[in-house]
Amino acid sequence: MPTVWFIRHAESEANAGLRTTCPETVVLTEKGKRPAEDIARIFKRSPDLIITSPYIRTEQTAFPTMQRFPQCPHEKWDVQEFTYLSPCKYQNTTLLDRRPTVNAYWERLEPLSNDGEGAESFFHFMCRVQETVQRLYRLHDEFVAVFGHEQFLRAVLWFLLLGDAAPDYRCRETMERFHRFFTSFTMPNGSLIKVQLQVDEAPWISQLMTSHLSLRA
Question: Rounded distance, CA 10 to CA 115, Å?
């Protein structure tokens, strides 16, 4: 079973409060490029596989690591962020602009609802999380680095912690439980959580790691 490093992308334009149009094309800020280099330096050996989402900012974060280990395979998986608001409705807006709509979404607790083009329901999001974890368990690689997004990675951790007690993702109570977990902690940009997947046992999960972000060559 692989050891998986789950790494949140470095600071993006959206994280910095800038206006954005499409989730896929949001890029790192200049400030965000430095932590990406810090991340590359903490690897003591090459991963057997580097995974990014289809979103540019995860590949930009992984780029220094891929440069350091050019022989390491790179794959794009569906580990993109949970986009529950249709991007076409919120063109050229900031996180602050969208905050009232975000709050209203979580207050409604409608796991099967879809906001429109480019959005997904909570149910389909959690199905995607489950499929990702199952795919990781099927890997024969020993060491995998996943460069992803905060909401998605927190959902992966929630799924792993639930284990065999995974609930019905179509249920309002399940969505509410996830939101309570989701809001109980944050994953700063560039932070890392190590997970050791194990057969027939609960996975080992490290503490959230950020000390590498202060490193400078």
Answer: 27
